[in-house]
């Protein structure tokens, strides 16, 4: 065995032990930021729920800006994609849906996630749930999240609320390919089921 082969073998064994130790850890996994890994304290509002530090996506579901789709505001985009017939600012959707559409704290494909206080308390944002990945992670499609009218698709959103009730979320930052640093208040999910049709 040459000295170079011996060195490579030692490095490989060391890397394997580090991986084994990391997999056995009970500490929160690192949060991926553009500048590198960072492990947030468990009490930090930026901490991720255990086991969900990195979103599951592959080459077919990579979060991206859909350059082939026309620009839009979040409301007409969500209305078109979900079929929920509500007009007006996103911040009014949750109250407008009361008594008209099913609302809940449980995501479902096709439902609309309503965020309150997108940039300030008088503004909101809505997005359409594309897939439910786990009890604490979904993927959404939405428009104008980056404030230039762009449509972004397959965007992971994670529930970071202490009660696991989708009252607080973080959204994947597509340009930087990392979790956004801000926690948003979520009203809940509006489902495309008209209440006057139930009965």
Query: Strand fraction band?
Result: 25-35%
Strand order of the largest sheet: 5-6-7-8-9-11
Count of helical stretches: 3
CA radius of gyration is 20 Å
CATH class designation of the largest domain: Alpha Beta
Distance between the termini: 77 Å
Q: What number of structural domains do the residues give? A: 2
Could you describe the 3D structure shown?
The chain is α+β, with helices and mostly antiparallel strands and 199 residues long. The chain folds into 2 domains: 1-49, no CATH class; 55-197, endopeptidase domain like (from Nostoc punctiforme) (endopeptidase fold (from Nostoc punctiforme), Alpha-Beta Complex), CATH 3.90.1720. Helix content is 18%, strand content 32%. It has helices spanning 3-24, 74-82, 93-97; strands at residues 31-33, 36-38, 64-65, 101-104, 112-116, 124-134, 137-143, 151-159, 168-173, 178-179, 184-194. Strands 5-6-7-8-9-11 form a 6-stranded antiparallel beta barrel. Strands 1-2 form a two-stranded antiparallel sheet. A hairpin with a 2-residue loop joins strand 6 and strand 7. Mean pLDDT is 79; it is low at 6-45.
Keywords:
single chain; 199 residues; alpha+beta; endopeptidase fold (from Nostoc punctiforme); two-stranded antiparallel sheet; 32% strand
Topology:
Elements: H1 3-24, E1 31-33, E2 36-38, E3 64-65, H2 74-82, H3 93-97, E4 101-104, E5 112-116, E6 124-134, E7 137-143, E8 151-159, E9 168-173, E10 178-179, E11 184-194
Antiparallel strand pairs: 1-2, 3-8, 4-11, 5-6, 5-11, 6-7, 7-8, 8-9, 9-10, 9-11
